[in-house]
User: Which sequence fits this backbone?
């Protein structure tokens, strides 16, 4: 509840306490322990403590890979979040590497038009746009838009919002 309302220091204390207890009772690689580590990373990310966030995400990632495998959605969600942290730090090439890894896994496991896959495609477009690579961004936005049209339809608010982004980039790429 603290996390949902932006009370990150309080949420961090609870997640730390939870992590320590679960680690002691259940072990390092139990899914509840790994989930607590992932939440700790989320707290640090939201507080702008990116190096700590990456440490906790890496801890969760190592456990998820060991327990669930490299292409499990929980593993891929952690990979995706690591990309977000790298993007927030301005480490765009690292962000794109992490996003590509998440994308490959999501496509393999969930399919090309799954919301997690399309969200990753969208986030890759954001990175390219942030770097001023408008043509590359447009390609990725268009890919995300095509997927959302298939899944959500042309009149869904997410589809319409993405269509406006694509339209805004057209003059910059011609």
Assistant:
């Amino acid at each position: 509840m603290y996390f949902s309302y932006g009370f990150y220091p309080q949420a961090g204390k609870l997640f730390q306490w939870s992590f320590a207890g679960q680690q002691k009772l259940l072990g390092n690689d139990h899914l509840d322990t790994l989930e607590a580590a992932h939440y700790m990373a989320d707290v640090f990310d939201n507080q702008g403590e990116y190096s700590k966030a990456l440490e906790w995400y890496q801890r969760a990632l190592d456990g998820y890979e060991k327990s669930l495998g490299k292409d499990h959605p929980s593993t891929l969600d952690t990979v995706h979040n690591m990309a977000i942290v790298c993007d927030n730090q301005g480490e765009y090439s690292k962000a794109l590497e992490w996003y590509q890894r998440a994308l490959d896994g999501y496509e393999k496991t969930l399919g090309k038009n799954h919301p997690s896959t399309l969200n990753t495609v969208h986030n890759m477009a954001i990175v390219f746009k942030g770097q001023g690579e408008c043509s590359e961004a447009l390609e990725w936005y268009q890919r995300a838009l095509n997927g959302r049209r298939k899944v959500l339809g042309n009149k869904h608010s997410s589809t319409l919002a993405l269509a406006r982004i694509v339209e805004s980039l057209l003059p910059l790429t011609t």
In short: The domain at 1-91 is CATH 1.25.40.10 (Serine Threonine Protein Phosphatase 5, Tetratricopeptide repeat).
